[in-house]
């Protein structure tokens, strides 16, 4: 493998340096005026040092301001020509499913195009992974040609710096905010504090100061995956009857199980396709064992297991609150007090709307989304995420005040709203 990779790389370099030097000069002369930042980044990159020029990634068809649309916008497959090992690793990790998972979620198709294809919302981070020709054509038809997938989500073009991708701030751009505040959790945890203190000279080099990459991308792997997945659900069901019932309730509200029959739906196939959840004990245990091995670099195996087991336990308790809230709203649907919004798969709460504003005038499909539904989605997407993810990121404040405490407030609000709705319905 290494010999084949080395030969391939040498051939690429020979090809590019043999006929591209002049073209690079022309590219640099022009783009030094039109986009100087790109040129400066390339000039300080390893690509420039090794003779990998503009045409290597962008082709030779574009040569003037008039034909700029002929420039090839490289995706991960182009990077794979030289970085085969990293590409193969990436293709097995969850980042490869970024764009696919975004489009598998119903809420994506309620949002304005500028937030998705334009990259100023969910699409700005989920623009990862290999797109189909149909997806690319759809983007081009809408005029969003610059939202092409490539490795520059972490290695920003055109410097493509390894040090940048290894810095936790490279992860901050996406892993922060409403439904996945991992940056906030890590940076204000003991792990994050030690990292920043070390950078300021308060800890010697070599002292333990774990970053995002230490735990999730160890030894330079690009195959990132977690035991619980993004949705925080897994199969098989737990042995405890109450926990099992609560997880079934959540799976129904995710549309993964039919709330009437309990049978799997087409959404389960989508969850499988994008590797969004661990759906058997073997795949879950594999990721858990990998994390335990990482934790064991600093902590004893017994301590690491105890901490991760505590995260599992709090998730079960959070799901007790979540299931009670879902059942409260589901009864309102069942009794005809809440009308099923257009686009909902069942006459039942649907958490994958990911929507939080009432009466969205720009989208008629959401006009009938009740306020109690919005509180339920907020409880799942915002506060439940904090309650259990904060345990795995060792952040006491997020675990309690931003997670568990807010879930109890949400449940109280949902019960009060349900009581009011029933009273008004009787009148």
From TrEMBL:
Keywords: Signal. The keyword Signal applies. It comes from the Bacteria. Residues 1-23 form the signal peptide. The keyword Signal applies. Coiled coil: none annotated. Gene3D superfamilies: Hydroxylamine Oxidoreductase, Chain A, domain 1 (1.10.780.10), Hydroxylamine Oxidoreductase, Chain A, domain 2 (1.20.850.10). This is Doubled CXXCH domain-containing protein.
